[in-house]
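Give me the fold.
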Amino acid sequence: MFVRSRATRQGRRAASSLQVQSRLARLKLSSHHSDIQPTPQHCGRTSTMEDTAMPDSSPPLFHELKFSIIPTSLEQDYVQELTQNIESRGGNVIPFDASKGRMNHLAEVTYIISTTTDFPDYYDALELLINVVKPKFIDDCLAANKVKNPRSYSPDTALFMSDVVVCVADLPEGDQDAIVGGVLAMGGQHAQGLSKAVTHLFALSMDDQRCRLAVDKRLALKIVLPHWFDDCLKVGRRLNERPYTLPDPEILNINAGTIRAPTLNANIVDAINPEPTNDPATPFAHLEDPRAIKAFSNKQVKIGEDLNINDRLRGIITDVIEAGGGLMTEDIDEADIYICNYRDGEDYIKASQKKIDVGNLSWLYYLITHNQWTNPMRRMLHYPRPRHGIPGFENFRISISSYTGEARVFIENLIKASGAEFTKTFRQDNTHLVAAHKNSEKCDAAADWGVNVVNHLWIEESYARCKMLPLTDTRYTHFPPRTNMGEVLGSTEIDRDAVERMFFPKNRKPQITKRDLQTEDQPEDTPEGVPASSAITKPGRRTKSGGAVATPVANRHSLGKENETPGTSGSRGAKDRALSKLHESAPDIAKFEKEMKRKGGVIHGGRRPKEVNHDRKDRDSGASKRSIDEVEDAGDGTTTEEDEATGPAQKGKKARKERLGPIDYRMTVTKDPRWMEHPEKQSKDMARMRELGVFIGDSHKNCNLLVAPRVVRTVKFVAAMASGPTLLSPEYLDHALKHGKLPPLDKYPMDTSEYEKENNINMADAIARAKQNKHRLLKDWTIFCTKNVSGGYDTFQTIIAANGGTCQAWTGRTTKPTATRRKIEALPDEVSQNLLEDEGDVLYLISENKRSEVGLWEKFRKLAEEHEMTPRIVTTEWLLSTAIAQKMMWKKEYELTEENVK
């Protein structure tokens, strides 16, 4: 689920190799006529008279297998030991040429032994279907006297459980299966019983027999709650076990105190700034070792023109490279290494298509300092940046919280490289807050202001894949309890395939113009369960010659095709055809973006009008109590070198920027086709509305204006209803954009008559109830929802959360509702009066009228009975009707039973 494509290819290759080796192992075992297995020392040789009379016909363990050992980070003695063990069991070791940093006769190799994927031949090895394994693979093969599954020994960081051997204590059977299956999928191993090989024991308490045995035997393993694995799976990284470790796990301690800062992260060492400010350090003497991969030996290096380095620095770099056995060149066709700042230009495209090493100045300094080769795509800021950032990020203003030291500098520079605006202080007009955890004042402010709070994986993976990824992927909004996400900072690698598609496809010629820099970004399929309204893609158009032509990216508040609830459908045909023509408008859009940076913006020629004529009587009385004043960085970390280096000129430039006026209204627009085929018009119109004091966004929390042609069942509309917004027709927008001022709110009301007639409901009363409820209609409710429900699980999770409830995915696993009986008496009278049809002890499961769902229902009924609640399995119609009406509604036709399954 989180394994990158190269890990997937390696997994398929490993499975094929495993089948071959398994057949060899069975052949070997079947040929023995003695009950005594040969020991590793004597395998393949005769030692007794019986052996002489009855020769062992089975091949040696590593018969016809060829290995190559990458000596980086391995002791020389251990390399010799591995070589001896392989050769004594029938294998061949192809020497590694340390002077060239490459493998001899790569195509002949069967297995590459390495502690990391960070060596020059790694991707070529994947293309040749060569297994890359850790040294432990050899040790375990010898111990078991059979060739093990190589996938469990991959050094690929995508298989983040590859060093883990788990044993599961007395947990429910469903939980055991889920944990074991997940660990195996992520490269780990499972042991039925305790042994010295086990690294993690999953248990709920120390009372378990296995836990007591592990303590008595003083086994070197970690006893952790199953929550650790769940959180690792949610973020796709191996997290620190400390908060989950028994007998006193921090996640269960409400008085655990502040979350501790992470230690120095090796993933970002010497890789926090794409443009280093100091001269390169000289190589360390202790790295002058024959087992090190020489960085510049027999290499020719070309320095790109976009670096703009002076003659003195160029001379220093030349001296160091030549001292390391390399040469400088001005001909890209002769170069083995190309150093540049941006992903454009003839030399960059030619070098990338030739598959020579392409990196930036920071990467070059790393090679000089360590005199050891590393993949420039391994660390994100070692690879040249996109000159115009990631499409869509130019509209973002991003701040950060709870990152300190080098981690803070790394995130700052990554935000800037993505094309977004980084703000040291957090304000109400920020679009995103990147946080290491949620225990901070900035995160509290973000919740009040409706600002997206994400972990750093969102910006890392968007940058790595050259596209803005949807925030509906819960990996980007999940914050494991008592965990500082800075511990896994920098663990994402640049996606080679995505960069190639975007910047140097095979059919693209090097001669390019600046407008050609943004090429086609092929959209991926929307992940299962993710609303289509949030799966933002940026399709391009392919020309007759096969070249890719970029299309401008829609504003982050894209109001195109939205999530369709059950019974609705839509077509992307018209939208795709329109998007294919947008490349013609690219110069105009660029001019508009340039004008937007002028003081006062495009509309008012230098200043905002002193008065805006609009009715303020209906302004949301429940607006944020926080002022628009800045939330400073107090408590977020230390002052960085960049902060200290900021002089009066830079501060004066910031002060001269025109600040937009306060936000009077927060508007959500849905099912209005005006922007569906015109993203460039959308950007302009939204900027004009912002000048009038109206912020158009997708957040439902503080929405006080909801624009739609009628009552529709999109996730935007239904979730926004919880805020009690004023319902307006699209004509309200027409008037505001045409006249440059906001009309009275009662002039263009939404036509709700059709919905009211069909559903016997008064929408004005629903809005009044929403204002009473204040997002508390489903407070203390736990509502379960199946993963494959029509419309997507995330859709209904958003609607339930907007009304104060908790949505839990139901897969049939044993679990516990976060809330059981609802305490209606604890709610204010104005809320409880809207819950008259709630029986207080009903547990709901949102499901589908499909046979594939029926198997989940009986287990759900047992869960409800265990918690003394009444199970009720319902259609999505129940939640949609309740959320729109803003009161508990129940009709018999909402309920699902086995008798009425299609």
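The radius of gyration is 31 Å.
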